[in-house]
Amino acid sequence: MTERIAIVGGGKIGEALLAGLIQSGKQTKNLVVAEKVPSRAKEIADEYGVLVTDLTSAAEGAQYVFLAIKPDDVDSVLRQLAGAEDNAESERVTVTLVAGLPISRYENALQAGSPVVRVMANTPMLVNEAMSAVSAGRYVSDEQLAAVTALLETVGRVAVVPEKQMDAVTAVSGSGPAYIFLMAEAMIDAGVALGLTRMQATELTVQTVKGAGLLMSESGLSPVDLRAAVTSPGGTTAAAIREFEANGLRHGVYQATRACAMVSAKGRLRPDVEGLTGSGGTRGDSDTP
């Protein structure tokens, strides 16, 4: 049976998922996007050659419905999904990429027994390098979870975790890109203070961050081993590391991730991915409230 996949929300994350699915070989005739802003709907349809329609039409007959929307839109979307007639040959799986809302919120709003998968992704999805964590609801089968995982792997890596770990996931990877960007920002400013032009400092920093990430990913060595390999006793790197430790970098990371997880647990956090979901705007715009 051919899988029909609906993506609700034409923001940057919704578009990134759509592009990844197409690049992986999914046929555009089996993909549909629900987007309520006419200008954005036209842009997506023109760019990718997919059907862009209203929510009810998009969900009809879909085996997988991905919600790439803002939290404020969730209740309205769930009411429409619950009331929509489902003529699919198999059970519809609702996959939420919305930050901070538990699976029970969806299960209680949808028809009884509806399978729901919760995803915490991050903004590197925009360059097919996402780190997505997925948690299965009570009614999700092993086969359905495997299928959702495979679909998300078109835009990065996927880890399956119990939902109780989602706050920790948010603190490490969901909001994590912002930590790296902050470090890069500080390195650029420091380079300028040392006499580099801002363009020079930016190029040096961005490539260094990129290369370090690839080295951690592909070398098979731990961050501890990689750091030790470039830290000669009494050398320049050792002097810098000593200052980081003296100024509490490690402690600051502990405290920052703990604060992030605590706020996430209270339902107030909106990680960086949320600003890239939802409707409206062009691909160069931010949808952050």
TrEMBL record:
Keyword flag Amino-acid biosynthesis: yes
InterPro entries: 6-PGluconate_DH-like_C_sf, NAD(P)-bd_dom_sf, P5C_Rdtase_cat_N, P5CR-like_CS, P5CR_dimer, Pyrroline-COOH_reductase
Primary location: cytoplasm
One GO cellular component, as annotated: cytoplasm
Protein EC: 1.5.1.2
Cellular localisation: Cytoplasm
GO biological processes: L-proline biosynthetic process
SUPFAM superfamilies: 6-phosphogluconate dehydrogenase C-terminal domain-like, NAD(P)-binding Rossmann-fold domains
PROSITE patterns to which the protein is assigned, alphabetical: P5CR (PS00521)
Domain Pyrroline-5-carboxylate reductase dimerisation: 163-264
NCBIfam families for this protein: proC
Function: Catalyzes the reduction of 1-pyrroline-5-carboxylate (PCA) to L-proline.
Family stated for the protein in its record: Belongs to the pyrroline-5-carboxylate reductase family.
Protein's recorded name: Pyrroline-5-carboxylate reductase
Organism expressing this protein natively: Gordonia insulae
Lineage per the UniProt record: Bacteria, Bacillati, Actinomycetota, Actinomycetes, Mycobacteriales
